[in-house]
Write a structure and sequence with these properties.
mainly beta; Rossmann fold; Neuraminidase; 2 domains; seven-stranded mixed sheet; four-stranded antiparallel sheet; 9% helix; globular
Length: 445
C-alpha cells in the first residue's frame, strides 16, 4: 500500500488547514501540508488583459525524471496563458530541492513572483515526488505536497502538481490531469482514414481505439472518464456505441429505424441524448442506459440535433433549423418548453454546455468564416472567440475556462486548437497529427 506523509514547513507560519488526502489513479496519493493565509500573488482569470505571472520551475532534484517532471509542469502552466515560466538559464540559485528553503533574493533578482521546487526519490520501487510552491516576494510557502506513484506514472504526477499550482494561484480547478478523445485522421484527401484516438491533454501518450474500418464521429466522454460514446458510420448504416476504456468492451446502443448520430452523455452518465434521422427529418431522443428504453423529445418537422445537457441535467441545448436556418434552442430535459436563444445573424451549430453552467459554446458560420463562440444560457453576452476558414466542434475543459476545437485551413488537414473564454489565449495543441471532433474528459481521479 502506498504511504503518504505531510511535508515539514521550512519556516514558522500560523497554523493552517488540516492535511488533505488525494487518492489518485495508478496508486497515486498526495498529502497537503498546512496552507498559509491567502497569497499576496494571484492570477485573476476573469480579466481579458491579464498579464502572465512570471514563475520559476527549476529542474526537480533526483536525476532525469526530476527534470522531465519540471518540464511538463512548466509546459502546462505556459500553455494555460496565465503563467510565464522563466528561462532556466537565468536562474541564479542552482540545485534547489524540496528540502531547501530558497534564497529569495536570487529569485527576486530575476523577477520570479512564484517558484516551484521539488525532489524525486525512488523508495521500494515507488516514485516519490515532494514539491513546494513559494510566493517569492512575500518569502512565504503557499503549498507543499508529496505524491507517491509507480515510476511509469511520472507524467500523471506532473499534471497533478500543475493542477495544484494552478488552483492555488488562480482559485479555480486546474485541467491538466485529463485526457482528450478525438478523431485521428490520416491518408490523402479523398482517402482519409478516421480512427477513434485518445491522448493526454498535452498531446502525450496517443493511442488508437478503433481500426479505421469505419468512419467514426462525435466521440464524447461520460462523467466518470471511463466510458466513451461515439458514432460509427458505414456505407449502409450508422451505429452509436458505448466503449469502456478500462475493459475495452464495446456495445451498441441498439437498432434504430433511420440514421443515428450526435450522441452525448447526461451529467450523471445514466442517459445518452442522440438524434435519429428518417426521410430527411431529424429528431432528438434520450435513452436510459439501465433499461435501454428511449424517449423522443422533439417532434418538429425541422432538423433537430446536437443535444447537450446542462450540468444539473434539467435542460438540453440543441441545434434546429425550424426557424429557416440552424439556430440554438434550449428545452427541458423532458422535451418541454423549447425556446430559441441565438439571436444574431449566421448559422449556429454544435452547442455544448459548459461544466460550470455559465456558458454554452457553439460553432457559428457568418461572413464567409467559421467561429467558435460562447453565450449565456439565455442567449445574452454572445462573444466570438475565434475566426478562420473552418473552426468547429468546441469541447470544454472540466473547469469551464478553456475550449478545444478543430481548425482547418484551405487544402490542409484539420488540427486541434484551444482558446480560453476571453479569446485572448489561442494556440495549436501539441498533438502533431490531423485531428477533429475533440472531447475533453473530466479531471481524472
Amino acid at each position: 500500500m502506498t504511504q503518504a506523509r505531510s511535508l515539514p514547513t521550512r519556516q514558522t507560519l500560523p497554523s493552517r488547514a488540516a492535511a488533505l488526502l488525494f487518492t489518485l489513479l495508478c496508486a497515486i496519493t498526495a498529502v497537503a501540508i498546512a496552507q498559509p493565509a491567502r497569497a499576496e500573488i494571484e492570477v485573476n482569470v476573469n480579466r481579458g488583459d491579464v498579464q502572465p505571472l512570471p514563475i520559476a520551475v527549476p529542474a526537480f532534484g533526483g536525476g532525469q525524471v526530476g527534470g522531465d517532471i519540471s518540464q511538463v509542469i512548466s509546459a502546462n502552466l505556459q500553455r494555460s496563458g496565465l503563467f510565464r515560466p522563466l528561462d532556466p538559464n537565468s536562474f541564479i540559485e542552482k540545485g534547489l530541492t524540496a528540502n531547501v528553503q530558497p534564497r529569495f533574493a536570487d529569485w527576486k533578482t530575476i523577477n520570479a513572483q512564484a517558484l516551484v521546487n521539488g525532489q524525486v526519490t525512488v523508495e521500494g520501487g515507488k516514485l516519490r515526488v515532494d514539491f513546494r510552491l513559494w510566493d517569492v516576494f512575500a518569502e512565504q510557502q503557499l503549498l507543499g505536497l508529496q505524491f507517491t506513484a509507480s515510476p511509469e506514472s511520472w507524467r500523471k504526477v506532473a499534471h497533478k502538481i500543475s493542477d495544484a499550482v494552478y488552483e492555488r494561484l488562480t482559485g479555480e480547478k486546474g485541467y491538466f490531469d485529463t485526457r482528450v478523445v478525438f478523431v485521428a485522421e490520416s491518408g490523402a484527401r479523398g482517402q482519409v482514414t478516421k480512427r477513434l484516438a485518445i491522448m493526454d491533454q498535452d498531446g502525450a501518450n496517443p493511442s488508437y481505439l478503433t481500426s479505421g474500418d469505419s468512419i467514426v464521429m462525435t466521440p464524447r466522454f461520460s462523467s466518470n472518464s471511463q466510458e466513451i460514446t461515439y458514432m460509427s458510420l458505414k456505407q449502409d448504416s450508422s451505429t452509436v456505441y458505448l466503449f469502456n476504456l478500462e475493459s475495452g468492451r464495446r456495445e451498441s446502443l441498439g437498432t434504430f429505424q433511420g440514421m443515428v448520430f450526435s450522441p452525448r452523455f447526461s451529467p450523471d452518465g445514466g442517459k445518452v441524448v442522440f438524434s435519429v434521422e428518417r426521410a430527411g427529418n431529424s429528431d432528438i431522443y434520450v435513452m436510459n442506459l439501465a433499461s435501454r428504453t428511449s424517449t423522443r423529445l422533439t417532434t418538429d418537422p425541422a432538423i433537430d440535433t446536437s443535444g447537450s445537457f446542462s450540468p444539473d441535467g434539467s435542460r438540453i441545448v440543441f441545434n434546429s433549423d425550424r426557424a429557416g436556418s440552424p439556430q440554438l434552442y434550449v428545452m427541458g430535459a423532458d422535451g418541454s418548453g423549447a425556446r430559441r436563444i441565438s439571436g444574431g445573424g449566421g448559422r449556429y451549430t454544435t452547442p455544448v454546455w459548459s461544466p460550470t453552467g455559465e456558458f454554452i459554446a457553439f460553432t457559428k458560420q457568418t461572413g464567409g468564416e467559421f467561429h467558435i463562440g460562447v453565450m449565456r444560457p439565455d442567449g445574452s453576452d454572445e462573444r466570438l472567440l475565434t475566426s478562420s476558414y473552418l473552426d468547429e466542434g468546441p469541447t470544454w475543459a472540466p473547469n469551464g475556462r478553456v475550449l478545444m476545437f478543430s481548425r482547418e485551413t484551405p487544402g490542409g488537414p484539420p488540427k486541434l486548437w484551444s482558446v480560453d473564454v476571453t479569446g485572448r489565449i489561442l494556440q495549436p495543441m501539441p498533438y502533431p497529427g490531423a485531428g477533429s471532433d475533440p472531447a475533453w474528459s473530466p479531471l481524472l481521479n
